[in-house]
Design a protein that fits this description.
The protein contains eleven helices and 21 strands. By secondary structure, it is α+β, with helices and mostly antiparallel strands.
């Protein structure tokens, strides 16, 4: 990815992509002299900050001026950006990050879809850089990257201690260049090395299938800007098919726009029903997002949703709402657990702070972050299934729909 909100985009993500993949206190130091000791704080906008002891900061600043041999080649503004990055790092939140002008431009290019990379979303799980999901028909997908893969090295860089955005920056690159990932995969005794040739990433959205057994399948790969309209067309095709059996496949879907998640859920819930709640803790009242009440289906609809460890963010919002309101059964494996909300804030005209502002709760008040969703029918997808080209999760969904 990721996703965020306010932009309300959960970019869940950090599309690499790369994906992934959807921004403080600004201490104005640009008026400091290039030479001479500095001991004060200019442009003080935060009374709390003035009560903090900044003397260690200035002592370090001045020591750099006096001792570091290349200090003159680093501008004061670069040091300010570094200080802000350190401030954000102190939150110990992998999804909060400060972007310098160059990084901000790259991030905005990713949101607009103008980037090259390998095509997957990553997150931090159990303090390890982890693949949330590769995007369909991207270099990562074709290289057989799997949800849940642990990325140990990117080229020669060990990932322990790397932030998500740092990892994304290493994996992105010019089209037709190669990046080497060292992966730890469940079921493999030894790490595996995978070479991936970067390409221009086109984020897939949705496709449909009307099976011979009367089951209509909607496979949703991401919650992009146009996914709500595409889903509307898919629902129209489903209704025109004349069947009452619907399968929504959200496996490997790393998320995207919150608005799209609410809109898609609204096809199955009466107006006013809670889809998701943004919990801001004690800082402000929660914000509740409710169904828009398209709700065109009666109780005779047979509905199953497939999820797995690559289902994250907006996928978890949709699946969680449908499960809590008993509108659909969930089949598959536990979802990723990406349930935090990021807001993008301009710190200066050319820098951004992406900062976590809230956590997502399902309609029943269950926390998504780190916990994920537990399916009603837990069905594992084993290495043996993969080798034999079996899909036991799909088979279980079909069984339930044909009962």
């Amino acid at each position: 990815m990721p996703e965020f909100s306010k932009m309300r985009r959960n970019i869940g993500i950090a599309f690499i992509v790369i994906l992934s993949f959807l921004f403080g206190i600004y201490v104005g130091l640009r008026n400091y002299p290039e030479i001479g000791k500095v001991t004060g704080l200019l442009n003080k906008e935060n009374e709390v900050a003035t009560k903090a002891d900044f003397s260690p900061f200035w002592r370090a600043w001045n020591t750099i001026d006096e001792k570091y041999p290349k200090a003159g080649k680093i501008t004061n503004q670069d040091r300010v950006y570094g200080a802000i990055s350190g401030l954000v790092d102190s939150l110990n939140d992998p999804y909060s990050v400060f972007f310098t002008p160059e990084e901000a431009k790259s991030f905005e290019d990713e949101i607009a879809g103008n980037f090259s990379g390998v095509g997957m979303e990553v997150g931090i799980k159990d303090k390890v850089l982890t693949v949330i999901a590769p995007l369909k028909n991207t270099p990562a997908y074709r290289a057989n990257i799997k949800p849940g893969d642990k990325i140990l090295k990117i080229d020669e860089v060990v990932t322990s201690g790397l932030g998500i955005e740092e990892a994304i920056k290493l994996m992105r690159g010019e089209k037709d260049t190669t990046v080497v990932l060292v992966i730890a995969r469940e079921g493999n005794k030894e790490p595996i090395e995978i070479k991936i040739v970067r390409a221009i990433i086109e984020i897939p959205t949705l496709d449909t299938e009307f099976r011979k057994d009367g089951i209509f399948v909607i496979r949703l790969y991401s919650f992009s800007a146009n996914s709500a309209n595409l889903f509307r067309d898919a629902i129209k095709s489903f209704v025109e098919s004349g069947t009452d059996k619907l399968l929504l496949d959200l496996r490997g879907n790393p998320g995207g726009y919150l608005e799209a998640a609410v809109d898609i859920t609204s096809w199955f819930l009466p107006g006013g029903k809670v889809v998701v709640t943004e919990d801001y803790g004690s800082d402000k009242n929660p914000e509740i997002f409710r169904s828009r009440g398209y709700d065109v289906f009666n109780d005779k609809l047979k509905f199953v949703v497939l999820i797995d460890g690559g289902s994250a963010s907006a996928s978890e919002i949709v699946a969680g709402a449908l499960q809590d309101h008993k509108r659909a059964k969930l089949v598959g494996e536990k979802s990723f657990g990406k349930g935090s909300v990021q807001e993008a804030i301009k710190i200066t005209p050319d820098t951004l702070l992406k900062i976590t502002v809230a956590k997502w709760l399902t309609p029943n008040g269950n926390l998504i972050e780190q916990k994920g969703l537990t399916p009603d029918y837990l069905v594992e997808f084993t290495k043996k299934d993969l080798e034999s080209k079996k899909d036991p999760q799909l088979e279980k969904a079909v069984e339930l729909l044909l009962k």
